[in-house]
């Protein structure tokens, strides 16, 4: 578990660096991401288990949601179940590809990029014959650091918010 999280952290940082680069930014523009501060970001590994269900149409696996992280790196087992909401109406399956991870843009990346990177609504459905497992690595900033749009110019779409505050708002209003 520790080794896995170490690998995921490196990958998350690499991907965030590339995403910042595409916005014309780099690690130096984000105080808590500067190499000397990198021990501070928060991350957690969530282990999901979806038992076999005789009637999947009447059960909820994981309800529709967006991840509250900056980025999520999801490792699915070989059983399909993840779906993404496209155009607000279509649930499209994200089938597992052996050896591949799914990268979800989280709400905090959505805020940081002023909506350039959009957090995606997704859910997990259960399977009639197979038990399914997945591992989600959520990567985010230190809990008490204000996250605000970095490329807003004069038009920020979101107010500064800490991860902690954001989770509280989401728990109340989502
Ligand atoms: C999650 C999630 C999907 C899955 O843990 O946030 O979206 O396929 N999991 O288990
Ligand atoms: Ni999720």
Task: Give me a quick take on this structure.
The chain has 174 residues and is of the alpha+beta class. It has a 4-stranded antiparallel beta sheet.
Give me the count of strands.
Answer: 8
Distance separating the two termini: 31 Å
Portion of residues in beta strands equals 25-35%
The biggest sheet amounts to: 4 strands, antiparallel
What is the mean predicted local confidence, pLDDT?
Answer: 93
What is the helix content? Answer: 10-25%
Which secondary-structure class do the elements indicate?
alpha+beta
- DSSP helix count? 3
Strand order of the largest sheet: 1-8-3-6
Bound small-molecule species: N-oxalylglycine, nickel (II) ion
Notable traits:
174 residues, binds N-oxalylglycine, binds nickel (II) ion
């Amino acid at each position: 578990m520790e080794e896995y999280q170490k690998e995921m952290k490196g990958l998350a940082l690499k991907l965030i660096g590339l995403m910042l680069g595409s916005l014309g930014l780099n690690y130096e523009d984000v105080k808590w991401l500067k190499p000397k501060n990198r021990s501070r970001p928060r991350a957690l590994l969530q282990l999901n288990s979806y038992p076999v269900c005789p009637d999947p149409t009447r059960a909820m696996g994981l309800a529709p949601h967006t991840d509250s992280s900056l980025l999520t790196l999801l490792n699915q087992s070989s059983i399909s179940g993840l779906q993404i909401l496209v155009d607000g109406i279509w649930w499209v399956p994200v089938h597992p590809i052996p050896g591949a991870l799914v990268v979800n843009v989280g709400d905090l990346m959505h805020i940081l990029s002023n909506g350039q990177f959009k957090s995606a609504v997704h859910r997990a459905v259960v399977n009639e014959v197979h038990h399914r497992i997945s591992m989600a690595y959520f990567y985010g900033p230190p809990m008490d650091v204000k996250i605000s749009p970095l490329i807003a110019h004069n038009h920020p779409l979101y107010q500064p918010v800490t991860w902690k505050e954001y989770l509280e708002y989401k728990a109340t209003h989502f």
